[in-house]
Amino acid sequence: MPETRRPLIAGNWKMNGLADESLLQIKDLAARASKISAPACDVLICPPATLLRDLAKAAVGSPVTVGGQDCHANGKGAHTGDISVAMLKDSGAHYCIVGHSERRADHGETNEDVKSKAEAVLREGLIAIVCVGETLAEREAGTTLSVISDQVKNSLPLGATAVNTVIAYEPVWAIGTGKTPTVLDVQTVHAHIRSDLTGLMNDANRVRILYGGSVKGSNAAELMAVENVDGALVGGASLTAEDFWPIVNVCI
Ligand code: PEP
Does the annotation mark 190 as catalytic? Predict the structure, then answer.
């Protein structure tokens, strides 16, 4: 991995976590990471929004930061149940995931919605993690690369740079299933994303492209060694420090 791309290991807790147990987990993770004298990667936890402020406080002074899992594209207004990027920032978030496949599937989010949300993230000075990934049907139909290109091109926020935007490639069929693509498949898609980005931004070579989908301690080293894989977006295996640390430890 080029010097210029500092890996990011990000945990997405989804709709999991109550205050007491979550605080224990982030403190455990922060303590482990704090023992590393010069961390070589960024470490992020995206908890439910209800926990952001407490977890951000608990991680202060450690290499661990926190982020949101989703946001509204508008700064404020009549959007019951939604959360703005300013609110996430106010609660201590440094990043926000947008376009996770569960948002795309469960809430009908289109590439255009994802792009608007990512642009809202950039307006507040946070870093957008833009998720892309093909379904099993798309993979079996042989359309993976064109689906990914379409998502990258149409979800990328205006003004995206390697500093404010991260791409996460997450094959939908690999999320939470225990299945992962082959190393060659991951390499092929990541190279394809890098090539797409090259046509869309000036500093494409410095954009971090994460892999996500059933990453765990036992497969993290192999996946993180793939060319153009600059870190991981981790769901299930990020919920406890015990499970997450072996993944972080590959890069830190
Ligand atoms: C995710 O939800 O982003 C994810 C990759 O989940 P898991 O690691 O559980 O497959």
Answer: no
List the residue whose alpha carbon is closest to atom 5 of ligand 1: 213
| Predicted structure pTM score | 0.98
Buried-state track 182-213, b at ≥16 Cβ within 10 A, e below 16: eeeebbbbbebbbebbeeebeebebbbbbbbb
Name the catalytic one among 102, 119, 138, 170: 170
Name the percent of the chain in helix, strand, coil, to the closest 5. Answer: 45, 15, 40
Q: Summarize pLDDT for 174-212 with one digit per residue, the tens.
A: 999 999 999 999 999 999 999 999 999 999 999 999 999
| Euclidean distance between CA atoms 230 and 211, whole angstroms | 8
Q: Residue 219: which of 182, 185, 191, 173 has the closest Cα?
A: 182
